[in-house]
Write a structure and sequence with these properties.
By secondary structure, the chain is an alpha/beta fold. It has 10 helices and 8 strands. An 8-stranded parallel barrel has the order 1-2-3-4-5-6-7-8, surrounded by 6 helices. Strand 7, helix 8 (188-196) and strand 8 (201-204) form a beta-alpha-beta unit. Helix 1 (18-33) runs parallel beside helix 10 (214-225), helix 5 runs parallel beside helix 7 (161-174) and helix 8 (188-196) packs parallel to helix 10. It is globular and about 50 Å long. The chain starts with a strand and ends in a 5-residue tail after the last helix.
Length: 230
């Protein structure tokens, strides 16, 4: 499987509006220069999906919605619907992040799949990873993120590698769903360790979005995957 790096722009000013376009183009540049085969996606606010998707080559950098609601098209107001983000240019969505927890995960995965959106669903621990793996329909990826490490630049792959290995083992007992590692990823060494532990990539925010040179920061993370994508 091709390694996958998801850069979550969150609601940082550095990743909002015109800045979202600039940041996405830097991510695109890093992906284009990479010597190893890797898939990169940027998770942006719903209001920025159209402008970001129009500014980058989505074959190089995919655009994900940071969230979608379970509502379909019809009589509802103020919701982020899967069909709308797809039409705006998104190819996937991030769900159940620690900063936006949801309860009806299965319904949102189903909604996303109906709109042909890929899904990355976050889990805070091994138990939640197992629960998510048991859902029908299944997500395309599960991202393990310890909430206490988010934004700290203290990587879960180093601080608590057991949560990654245990989550992967428990998920595989249920379904063969690829696992990403998130929370505190700071450099290429953190990525290398995460891949060694069995993940297929990472979910990252602070280390790229708030970096002095986001393109260089992402390039280092991509390099951590390995020259041959392993």
């Amino acid at each position: 499987m091709v390694p996958f790096i998801v850069v979550n722009f969150k609601t940082y000013k550095e990743g909002t509006g015109g800045n979202a376009v600039k940041l996405a183009k830097m991510c695109e540049a890093a992906a284009l220069k990479a010597k190893n085969k890797v898939k990169v996606a940027v998770a942006v606010q719903a209001t920025d999906i159209f402008r970001v998707a129009a500014a980058v080559d989505t074959a190089v950098v995919e655009v994900f919605a940071q969230h979608i609601d379970a509502n379909g098209q019809g009589k509802s107001t103020g919701f982020v619907i899967a069909e709308a983000v797809k039409e705006a240019g998104a190819s996937g969505t991030l769900l159940n992040h620690a900063e936006h927890k949801i309860t009806d995960i299965a319904k949102r995965i189903a909604t996303a799949k109906a709109a042909k959106l890929a899904t990355v669903v976050c889990a805070a621990d091994v138990a939640e990873a197992k629960t998510i793996a048991s859902l029908t329909p299944s997500p395309d990826y599960i991202a393990i993120e310890l909430p206490e490490l988010i934004g700290t630049l203290v990587s879960v792959s180093k601080a608590n590698p057991e949560v990654i290995t245990s989550s992967i083992a428990e998920v595989r007992k249920i379904k063969n769903i690829p696992v990403l590692c998130g929370a505190g990823i700071a450099n290429g060494e953190d990525v290398r360790k995460a891949v060694e532990l069995g993940t297929v990539g990472i979910l990252v925010a602070t280390a790229v979005v708030l970096a002095k040179n986001p393109e260089k920061a992402l390039a280092e993370l991509i390099k951590g995957i390995g020259e041959d994508g392993k």
